[in-house]
């Protein structure tokens, strides 16, 4: 049996007074006819004094909770675990398919390594979870094989979807790497260094400066940047990513306290009402819980909501809890989308009376944080979450969140 190193106990500065103030106010309101995310008074959050490991999306205590539930045969964790282990991502015969340059055009056309990269990253994370739960070293070795194969080859991402592809893949790699690096002794220091170099030199430059595209792009890119920063113990990049994330969330999810119009993304050049309406997919009536992509489709909306919850969850593990700041927006967005995902009639003022449903398995992390930990009522989200269990994967960057986060108090 492979020895599991002891947990690192670290302390950090959390900025609790700011969090409480933001929680009470539901985020500050910008003034004036034209507002940008930069105009919202978000205050200053302190980066963790040191990083907690493993600490990207799941912590050691969360993993211990999951392992205990699976070993006890408790539901819904048992069925969620069975779902994961039956998936192709848990196959010990999987052969990695790395390449030096991954080229991804619009909707991954051309697809030169796009699917292979995303799915190998998901497989590494799946194997890391399987290792931790089973203590079967074969799964740890498979995760190491996948990470080593890509870090030995990958040099760049190209074409129009390069930033998004980088964001999706690099949201998942650090989750796997954190678990393996800090709970398994078989990943050599040279291989860890090479993998860290891939994250820093190939992925981070593609995501750290964000995007003025649809909000799910930048939110996924910030999720990747935050996870990379934790793995690299890079406080400068972590601060930069969190700062951009904190500006983007108010520009993605509308609250009535924002004023008559949604907040515009910082640096986007969007100034007028007409430009904001166009950016919000032609929607001109704004209600609490609406997202910038609701009228595009629920699939992309789910990507954005999921990325927000992932960053908030990682920040909580890192003792810089962002839930008090973004929680009300998350709660309202999930409730609004869940209502219609569950089949409510669509009013004529909303997206012309037509919605493209398909939110995906994206509710568990935020529902657990806001409802189970913080005690917030979330009727629609609870119904949808329980209806969708066990939540699987979207084959991009969301995976096994009933297993990892359902009713997880840690």
TrEMBL record:
What positions does the domain Alginate lyase occupy? Answer: 119-340
Alphabetized Pfam families for the sequence: Alginate_lyase
- SUPFAM superfamilies assigned: Chondroitin AC/alginate lyase
- Signal sequence bounds: 1-30
An annotated Gene Ontology molecular function: lyase activity
Identify the InterPro entries for this entry: Alginate_lyase_dom, Chondroitin_lyas
Kindly state which keywords UniProt assigns to this record, in alphabetical order.
Lyase, Signal
Question: What name appears for this protein in its UniProt entry?
Answer: Alginate lyase family protein
Entry keyword annotation includes rRNA-binding? no
Tell me yes or no: is Ion transport among this UniProt entry's keywords: no
Question: Source organism's superkingdom?
Answer: Bacteria
